[in-house]
């Protein structure tokens, strides 16, 4: 059995600049920002890159669902969560050091609030893909490496610039 490579996910949640409507923010993100960013991310080996848009209508829907389920969720109020899937943190570091990416980030200021940004980092364990159970052996045991291997980020560094 081969050892699976850990797929990392870093997600960064942002709010739109208060001067923009949800539609204006979405228009900027999809028509002006994403295509340029995608080319940069692909150039540096990022496995996947996408944005999760969460307009007020979606947040209201999840709040209603939360109430139905007993109200124990903290509902995320961010407008967008940018997701990066990568093999190692060196890929992310190379993106962050790319002059074209730095310039693209500078252009975000009128569109992204810059306040209350939330970031998460972890690894992905998939158990259903394309409607099929995956990554379980015939006995139903996950085929991922053990927690100690997956949770070891000590050998990976991200520049603190």
Automatic annotation (TrEMBL):
Question: One GO molecular function term?
Answer: oxidoreductase activity
The UniProt entry, under Pfam families, shows:
EthD
Q: Which domain of life is it from?
A: Eukaryota
InterPro entries in alphabetical order: Dimeric_a/b-barrel (IPR011008), EthD_dom (IPR009799)
Domain EthD: residue ranges: 17-112
**Homology family:** Belongs to the tpcK family.
Q: Any idea what this protein is called?
A: EthD domain-containing protein
Q: Which organism is it from?
A: Aspergillus campestris (strain IBT 28561)
